[in-house]
UniProtKB/TrEMBL annotation:
UniProt source species: Myceligenerans salitolerans
Protein name, UniProt field: DUF402 domain-containing protein
Coiled coil regions, renumbered to chain: none
Pfam families linked to this entry: DUF402 (PF04167)
Organism taxonomic ancestry: Bacteria, Bacillati, Actinomycetota, Actinomycetes, Micrococcales
InterPro entries: DUF402, FomD-like_sf
SUPFAM superfamilies: FomD-like
Annotated DUF402 domain residues: 49-155
């Protein structure tokens, strides 16, 4: 399936992923290392090209990324591993649009503001706060208060010891036969719902 980000009414980036689980409420996807990034060839790009494109990013590096998405929820949970032993690194609460299903996968938009809880840390920390405050007015006009509120809601739940995800995902391993997928040729033209 394809994860697309829709920025200000047009595709901004796409990443081919593998569907691990989909029960209608929880959607779990995996991005193998080496998965290509797709950037649209044309557009108005009112806030500029995607930062990964500007940095020369062409594919996902490392062991891959597991993503947990809940229907109607304005964040996902990313899991990362590193090193020869594929050591679990921690929980990355990625603030983003709730997934909107498409004929090729789903659409979302990363909100830049994140909450990171390293596997060896006692508590979490906020990430990219300054970047969010700087770029947010142009990227998410009128939505910044709601995004901040979602970050506060995540922090409050974590502070209360409410772990709403299954921690056993940290032990998950991909099928060794899973290789990076290619993006469909028409990924930019598949209809989407703009926010």
């Amino acid at each position: 399936m394809v994860r697309r980000e829709i920025m200000r009414g047009e595709p901004w980036i796409a990443i081919p992923q593998i569907c691990v689980q989909d029960d209608g409420d929880l959607l779990v996807t995996y991005t193998p290392g080496g998965s290509p990034f797709g950037y649209p060839e044309s557009g108005t790009f009112p806030v500029g090209r995607h930062p990964w494109m500007l940095a020369g990013g062409t594919s996902w590096r490392g062991h891959g990324r597991l993503e947990l998405h809940w229907t109607g929820v304005e964040h996902s949970l990313f899991l990362f591993w590193a090193g020869a032993e594929r050591e679990f690194q921690g929980w990355y609460f990625n603030l983003e649009d709730a997934p909107r299903r498409t004929s090729i996968g789903f659409d979302t938009l990363d909100h830049e503001l994140d909450v990171w809880w390293a596997a060896d840390a006692e508590t979490y920390e906020f990430k990219d706060v300054d970047d969010f405050e700087e770029t947010g007015p142009a990227r998410y006009p009128g939505r910044m208060p709601a995004i901040r509120a979602e970050a506060a809601r995540i922090a409050a739940r974590l502070d209360a010891g409410d772990h709403w995800w299954d921690k056993s995902w940290a032990e998950w391993t991909p099928d060794p036969s899973w290789a990076p997928r290619a993006l469909p040729a028409d990924w930019t033209t598949v209809p989407f719902e703009a926010r």
